[in-house]
Amino acid sequence: MTRLPRLALAGLTVLTLGVALPTGGSAAPAEAERTGDFGQAVLTGFAKLPALTFVPASDPSGSLLGTAPVNGVTPPFADQPVQGFSGIARNRDGSYDVLSDNGYGNINNSGDFVLRIQRIVPDFAAKQVDVVGGINLTDPAGFVSWPLTRADRVLTGADFDVESIVKAEDGSYWIGDEFGPYLLHFDRAGRLLAAPVPLPGVNAPESAARLGVTANLGSSKGFEGMATSVDGRYLYPLLEGTVSGDTAGTLRINQFDRAAGAYTARRWTYRLDSPSNAIGDFIAVDKQRFLVIERDNNQGDAAAFKKIYVIDLADRDRDGLVDKTLVADLLNIADPKHLGGGAGTFRFPFQTIEDVLILDNRTLAVLNDNNFPFSSGRTTGRPDDNEFITIRLDRSLHADHRVLG
Fold first, then answer.
1. Contacts 24+ apart (CB under 8 A), 292-299
2. pLDDT (tens digit, 9 = 90+) per residue, 108-127?
3. Is 92 within a domain?
4. DSSP designation for 32
5. CA pair distance 404, 153, nearest whole angstrom
6. Is the pLDDT of residue 144 over 80?
7. Which of these, 57, 199, 287, 345, is most buried using a 10 Å CB contact count?
8. pLDDT grade, residue 35 (50/70/90)?
């Protein structure tokens, strides 16, 4: 088992679509580049964090998983696993903040998994990821009005299912949850700053049970992705599942005004290529364009759909849906230098791929959520590592300079 190094670093209305929005801060791409699919991406970096990596001297975890081996790993665990990268934010010092998932997949088995933001540094020369710190998420001021799992108000995977993250200029974090779905605002030390913000009119089964209302969103189908506007004013949380009554396979993108502390009346609709697909992440390219990871629910050889799209809120074809352009097929990445193995084509065949970040106009970082210890997309019978790859696109994204950091 790998132990972490003890290191340190110095009421809504639907928006009427069809009005083109200014890109702001970046020249708009030519029409051919805006609408035509990108070609094959090229693998430029590969690093991984071993599945059996744990936070040192942390609380035991996995006691609700039983004692039967899973992919060769036997729970419970003496420490907290570093797993499930469900969101990523870049720091100015070359490190990244990554959001661990809610634990082991659901509210019933994750009560001893502490919600945490991990700080990592990829070393592509050594093909490894170093964990250099992190913070636990807590609610010491008592902003959560319902009973928490732990009396010390350290948050666990039975309290929230955290899936998306935005780091603000002041160092605080906005995090999207799936149990509400809620927006959660934490300070730089991981302390909740305000009461969870619900999405009006939408309830997952977990919040519906607590409120005594009917759920209209599937379990684990809340805010899987959340972008921030390039000027930092708005958040754009994207649901992973279809709200009851909406067309099957369509997902709502809402707009939240951080200054007002409330949702606006603007809303857009993203359509999945298949109603059985799901989204993995959602980030801004400029004022009107965003990247979306869309995936099937398969892994390994069965994985057939793992793609990144750029979407345009302008709805230029007036069909009531955001426009989609394919940017990268993650199952068909050229690997001429054999960075990811011996083959000339690299596959990212994980069940859940939940992190994308723009490093420059032609380079993306992509990470998986390894669902420790359950997913085994890379090698059957072996728990997946957390992999951190970089890919070079065949042409520029023409991103807003503020996105490039």
1. 292/225, 292/238, 292/324, 293/225, 293/353, 293/354, 293/355, 293/356, 293/366, 295/351, 295/352, 295/353, 297/351, 298/351, 299/349, 299/350, 299/351, 299/375, 299/376, 299/377
2. 999 999 999 999 999 999 99
3. yes
4. H
5. 36
6. yes
7. 199
8. low
pLDDT at 17: 39
Q: What phi and psi values does residue 93 have, to the nearest 5 degrees? A: -95, 10
CATH of the domain at 217: 2.115.10
Closest C-alpha to 285, from 17, 16, 28, 18: 28
pLDDT at 7 > cutoff 70: no
Q: For residue 343, give the 3-state DSSP assignment.
A: coil
DSSP secondary structure letters along 293-314: EEE-S--GGG---EEEEEEETT
Tell whether 401 is covered by a domain.
no
Is residue 281 a part of any domain in this protein?
A: yes
Torsion 23-26-32-37 (CA) sign: negative
d(CA 246, CA 380): 37
Q: What's the predicted TM-score (pTM) here? A: 0.91
DSSP 61: B
Sign of CA dihedral 218, 197, 114, 86: positive
User: Residue 33's pLDDT band (boundaries 50, 70, 90)?
Assistant: low
Cα distances (Å, whole numbers) of residue 98 to 170, 206, 231, 394: 17, 25, 22, 27
- Model pLDDT, residue 34: 54
Distance CA 170, CA 289 (A): 24
Report how many domains make up the chain.
1
Q: Which residues of 162-178 are buried (b: 16+ CB within 10 A; e: fewer)?
A: bbbbbbbeeebbbbbbb
Torsion of CA 380, 382, 385, 387, to 10 degrees: -20
Give the domain range for residue 219: 2-392
Q: Is the pLDDT of residue 11 over 50?
A: no
**Of how many residues is the chain composed?**
405
